[in-house]
Amino acid sequence: MASYDSFRAARLIRFVNLILQAVLFLALFIGLNYIALNHTWRFDLSESRRYSLSAETRAYLANLERDVRIYVTIPADGADAELEQARRDIMALLREYTYHAGKVTQHRIDVRSLDIYQSRRDAEELGLDQPNQVVLVTDRHRHVLALGDFYTTRDLQIEGFHGEAALTAAILDVTKAEKQKIYFLTGHDEMRPDDVDRRRGLSGLREELRQRNYDVASLDLTLSRQIPEDAAMVVVASPQKPVRPFEEMLLRDYLTTRAGRLVLMIDPGVAHGLENLALDWGVRIYDNVIYDLDPRSLTETNDTRLWRFLPDPESGITDNFVNGSGLSLIVGPARVVSDDLARSVDEGLRVKKLIATSKEAWGESSYRLRNVLPSYTPEQDLKGELGVMVISERLKPANLPLSVRGGRLAVLGTADLVTNDRINTVGNLNLFLATVRWAIDQDNRLNIPVRPIERFQLALSADELMRLRVGLLLGVPGLVAAMGLFVYWTRRN
Amino acid sequence: MRHYFTILAHEVRTLLYHPGTYIAAVLFLLVMGFVFTGILDDYSRAPQETAPAVRFFQVFWIPVLFMVPLLTMKSFAEERRLGTLETLLTTPVSTAEVVLGKFSAAYLFYLTLWGSTLGFHYILQLYARDTRYLDSGPLIGGYLFIAVSGLLFVAVGILASALTRSQAVAGILCFTFLLGLIGGLSYVSELGTLRQEFFSPVRTALEGLRIPGHVDDFTRGIVDTRQLFFYLTGCILALIFSILGVEAKILNS
């Protein structure tokens, strides 16, 4: 008998046949799933499609100009429930972005989770050095989002999730061809972004701005004689000498004719030469020093704590500070800035005080006198809720149907909040970044609603809770056990 | 497929009459009851941002890793040990019908076990007097996930049982396969090697197959066709392998 005609050969052939079938089915499974990965549909069955991306975000994704890689550095830490929840919220949202980008554009949104402690080498290569961040990277730019950028808070509790607005704004930011450029005025011993000094350096702020995809540069008007065309915003941080009249004229011209954006941070006790410019925009800068005796306004190290914020939904600058978020600013000496109540009626100008002192504060105007203890002098010093930050903007005339960009000015009575010493204070950085976003018009482009976060808590007495536990542990299992006994009894009979 | 229904009816009847079924069900419900009361303890201490149902479904792996092996390890291993499988296959019944019949019975039991946990949510709602605890979103999504993923998990259990004649080995094999599916895919997708651009499609595919991510989507009410397809094709593949496994063993015997 031929060897191929034996049982052994037949069995071998059938065995090989089975193996081949298995390999073919496995290949089919992998192939089908690979095709399915690229041809997918997602359905949101939730009420009012609350987890789907807004039409606005989908429209922006359709016009994505380059690939975006997103690194999430929130560790998967089951022990911290809040962090774990944040990670889930953000990852679920990012899955929607990846899915929609895959549907509507050739460019990809690639999401990667990276634990910077476990994958230290990868993190270092990518320049990721902090946990609990979402970092967006393109071939040109990068943008860092902290967890606070994803949530709104009230009374120290998370109230809403506005991750979609934050992510869409960040994606728009990193996919833009050019970075927004922020110029810091120099030439009057201002604080400089390249200075690493603890008390007057702004290198920390520069780093924070760069991480958020802003370009930072210095501007000496005595040399350039003009404000560059690419200036998205100009910052004057604590000048120690008066700004010259021609420089003031250039700044004034930039604000009015070019709808410029200017942030003035003026420390007390120095002549700055910008009073008239501010006054034209409805802001009065006083020559005094604030003393606030309210215990809530002083830190243990005798720094000033600013904790009274006035809501202004139109600018959104103080959104993170109102509603009892608990955030405050820690600064050194400050002077009073307020809206000019004596200015003539001008409907095209909106002036708004955003930060104030407590009622116990006064603005000491005789601070230059030596050997005199500071004390409130009626009719000489200002007293009450004194302004520390005021914003002013030109609005389009009401009868004009077109959207016209107007200049924006923010004036702070202290520059101390952004120095290397202070910038790590959560409130200080948050306020400055919010001011930059308002000045540059960054958030106004998006109208994406905040998703409210529901809260579940069992409000049961100890007795009710015990009965609930017993009900859960004995109710359903007891029912099944009874059913089993019934079947057993029926079968026996 | 007439024989399929005969086998299914026989398997279901065996399950219904066997006292072990009820003991297993009671133990399952006790374990899940403990898990659920543990979750509710957190809700009585401090407000939580997600419904208890969402947290409940996130621990889906506990019953999957322990119940599915117990539920399926007997199906073929026991029959083979007793020699009844060969006898069964001498009748005009195909291997596919036997595999499908056993799989369907185990899957129905799996669904019934999970379905009975609906009672937990109902009892909670009765005590809490808050209709939000019976929120249809996470409940429908969560149970849909259980139903869809259960197809794959039970099929993997059947495959493990078809590969060996020892119940214990079948149980351990099933546990290992399921652990690999639930935890292994996540682990592999995060491997440093896959961060290279060359492996980008592989990493994307693996990240899409992360089962914990699927639970998050389902409990939010998001249904993704990739996930449905993965469980469905995975189930079919495991069942085909089970058929091939049974045939290979018969061939060798």
UniProtKB/TrEMBL annotation, chain A:
Residues 179-421 form the ABC-type uncharacterised transport system domain. The keyword Transmembrane applies. The chain crosses the membrane at residues 12-36, 470-489. Coiled coil: none annotated. It comes from Oleiharenicola lentus. This is ABC transporter. The lineage of its organism: Bacteria, Pseudomonadati, Verrucomicrobiota, Opitutia, Opitutales. InterPro entries: ABC_transp_unknown (IPR019196), DUF7088 (IPR055396). Residues 47-129 form the DUF7088 domain. Keywords: Membrane, Transmembrane, Transmembrane helix.
From TrEMBL, chain B:
It comes from the Bacteria. The chain crosses the membrane at residues 21-40, 52-71, 107-128, 140-161, 168-188, 228-246. The keyword Repeat does not apply. It is a multi-pass membrane protein. The keyword Membrane applies. GO terms for cellular component: plasma membrane. Keywords: Cell membrane, Membrane, Transmembrane, Transmembrane helix. One of its GO terms (molecular function) is ABC-type transporter activity. It holds the Pfam family ABC2_membrane_2. InterPro entries: ABC-2_transporter_component. Its main location: membrane. It is found in: Cell membrane. This is ABC transporter permease. It comes from Oleiharenicola lentus.
